[in-house]
Amino acid sequence: MTNARKQALVLMTVMAWSSGLALAGGKKLDIGQREYESNCVSCHGIAGKGNGPVAELLKVSVPDLTELSKKNGGVFPFGRVYEAIDGRQQILAHGTHDMPIWGDAYSVTGTPDYDDYRHNAESFVRSRILALIDYLHRLQSK
Predict the structure, then answer these.
(1) What is the DSSP string of 49-67?
(2) Which helix (H) or strand (E) element contains residue 126?
(3) What element of type H or E holds 22?
């Protein structure tokens, strides 16, 4: 399988996840929202406004994630957001690349090891990051 096909497959998977998969009882699963709630809410708050329960304890102000597009001329800054999540862009409040606030959730070393299921750890991590970015994109103020 070519690299482009692999990337297309990962993107389609993320889109299916983030748009919501029907579960028993009519509930929808939003992977991006789950990622956000697991790793971002404590600082950025439920609505992404920067008012999470630990925000006041930080020495830096927590940005309003709903204003990312507005502050970037109306265009969602996909690349900067991706690099902030995967650790390439150093953000003081997120911690060092070696020990980010969310641990190794967005690194290949944090990927679960499934003995009976062959998977590509890098694709697994990338799909989680893309789902989170999709959710942040949906949070943008209009």
Answers:
(1) SS--TTGGGSSSPPP-GGG
(2) helix 121-138
(3) strand 21-22
The whole-angstrom separation of Cα 50 and Cα 61 is 8
43 Cβ contact list (under 8 Å, min separation 6): 50, 52, 54, 55, 58, 62, 93, 101
Q: Is the pTM of this model over 0.85?
A: no
Question: In Å, what is the CA distance from 72 to each residue of 12, 13, 80, 124?
Answer: 26, 28, 11, 29
Residue 139 CA, chain-centre distance (Å), reads 12
AA identity, residue 113: D
What is the mean pLDDT of the segment spanning 25-48? 88
Half-sphere CA count of 101, side-chain side, radius 13 A: 19
